[in-house]
């Protein structure tokens, strides 16, 4: 069982247009909505593959009702904590060449009691979980150290915890030493405070974090695949996709696959292959649709345990 906590979930609306021109009226050629937020997407990706998961999230307002309904109809188990604010709507503008422009709202302001209820619900649901996963940004009102507290509370009980976030809440969580983190290229650079132009730089930055006590650092690198670093492994995997349709949620699917691999007893390098397969499959799908088993069938990830460290990262 994998429990996800998404303090700031969303309704994701993807709008397709021919080309984005600032200040002009655009006629959309298509649109779709999906339940969203990083932990919600991790749970959606796991549920789509038949894996046991529950998504913990705050839910309020009309968008909150819609989110609950969308999760119910997708068969994603969720524990929604009622809140007085309204769940946000995030918009992705997709162009035919794969360019994605995202507009993320700040989300509702949570009260102290609502934050406490979210944390308590997550911990209640986690008693028999293989992994507890905290993902995404903090809504207004949530303390910067929410993920750090989650890490400490799960680890005190002997559980395993993964975090995927950005900014101050991610740095605070990393300082509390989760078992696993999944930054993307930009988030890792932000975490270590300098640019990471080559795979060697990514590896070195991830190794620094491993030496601080994080067991698995998985770095997603967009079209350059992903790297997993542990105390004894440096593995790179890539599954190129010729015409990506939407990258929204690809990192969440990658994390879901990685955790699924680890929780079903695979070594980190093999779990990375599952992660990259799920992530690459996600970019072939519209909006933030998560891959079904059939969507994974044509994806082939290439794994190397001795990657070319001079590879420039886009
Ligand atoms: N353009 C792409 N081509 C092929 N795979 C991709 C592409 N973009 C993303 N992916 C896959 O999705 C994973 C996550 O993508 P990334 O953009 O790094 O995550 P995030 O959404 O967290 O920023 C990558 O590790 C890779 O497997
Ligand atoms: O919490 P944040 O950082 O605002 O991100 C939330 C957004 O990220 C997503 O989880 C998608 O993730 P990515 O676009 O980063 O792959 C959306 O579902 C959601 O709208």
From TrEMBL:
GO biological process, one term: small molecule metabolic process
GO molecular function term, any single one: 1-phosphofructokinase activity
UniProt function note: Catalyzes the ATP-dependent phosphorylation of fructose-l-phosphate to fructose-l,6-bisphosphate.
UniProt-listed Enzyme Commission number(s): 2.7.1.56
Any single Pfam family the record assigns to this protein: PfkB
Native source species: Humibacillus xanthopallidus
Keyword terms of this UniProt record: ATP-binding, Kinase, Nucleotide-binding, Transferase
GO cellular component, one term: cytosol
PROSITE patterns: PFKB_KINASES_1 (PS00583), PFKB_KINASES_2 (PS00584)
Protein name: 1-phosphofructokinase
Superkingdom in the source lineage: Bacteria
UniProt key word Nucleotide-binding: yes
NCBIfam families: 1-PFK, pfkB
Catalytic activity: beta-D-fructose 1-phosphate + ATP = beta-D-fructose 1,6-bisphosphate + ADP + H(+)
Protein family: Belongs to the carbohydrate kinase PfkB family.
Residue stretches in coiled coil: none
Record lineage: Bacteria, Bacillati, Actinomycetota, Actinomycetes, Micrococcales
